[in-house]
Amino acid sequence: MQILTALPSVRSPIVQRKGELRPSKLLSEPLRRLHATLQLDNARAREGTGPPRSILVVSADAGDGKSTVVAGLALVQREAGLRVAVVEADFRRPVMAKLLGVNSPHGLADVLAGTRRLDGALQQVERGSPVLAAAPAENGAGEGGVATMVESAEVGSLSVLVGGTSVSNPPALLARPAMPELLRSLSDEFDQVLIDAPPPLQVSDVLPLLGMVDGIVVVARAGHTREASAQRLMQLLARTASAPLLGLVANAVSRPDMERYGFSSGYGQRSWPRTLIGR
Q: Which helix (H) or strand (E) holds 22?
């Protein structure tokens, strides 16, 4: 499987910087690489039909860091000017509200149950204060004077649909006809829809979603993801009618392993993705 990017191990993946949430500086460039790969490589692979709009992010084991990868990628894509929607389809271990700083009790469960409209459950992740920049002064300010103006804000945006209320039967809820309709609606409104889902090997919640999305990304954590679990996940995806497997994100990778996998932070060095799991 192609490695889309390798992320180094950091203590705080999402941080407050310049008044707004951003990925850790060590993660920013690898996440930009992931964004560029998803936008460009898959557009070419699909022969000009465009990059995948809806992407399901899963992992073989719990604790691989899929949710932080989704949050970090969404923030990078917003920075790049995209309109991004994050859908938390993990009702068992919901963390997206904490990661992205939203707090509404309503979310995906309420929308699928028909007790809440989508536009009433989506929450926007706020940006920081406008950036001030120096500009030449207008007439009368004097030679060499400057006036302060507000720099144009980035057009990107980030909205989150958290899991919402507790769910007694997540697979049945996600299998409702309302789920593909919701994803189609979000794909029409946003440039990118990222779905955070639980590990398919541990719970069956995610299985109804495999055929509803444009592509699937697998997150594996170095030193944590078990080889047997990774192989079983690949076998499951190969046997199941699902969207194309776009590749793998290697998470919490040491510097030597990043170079071994073909990702070097040194400018001018060759960086080619290699195979981590399967062929």
A: strand 20-23
